[in-house]
User: Fold this.
Amino acid sequence: MANHKSALKRIRSSEKKRVRNRIVISKARTEIRDARDAITAGSVKDAQAATLEAIRTLDKAVSKGILHSNNAARRKSRLMKRLGVLEAGTK
Assistant:
C-alpha cells in the first residue's frame, strides 16, 4: 500500500481513468462484434451501417487517447476487408 500522499492520489486518479477507459473500450468491442455479426448475416446495407458505427467508435477512442492509432487502424482495416468481401460477393 502506498504511504505518500501523492502516491495515494495517483492510485485514486488512475482508478477513475481505468473505469472511464473501460467503458469506451467495451463500447468499441461491442460495436466491432455487431459489425462482424452483420457482415456474417449477409445484409450489405446493415453491414455497412454497423461497420461505419464501429469505425466511428474506434476513432473516438483514439481521439480520447484510449487506443493507439495503429491499433484502431488495424481493427478498421480488418472490418473493411470483411465488408469488401461481402460486397464483392453480392455483385
Q: What stands out?
A: The two ends are 62 Å apart (CA to CA). The chain has three helices and no strands. The chain has one domain: 5-90.
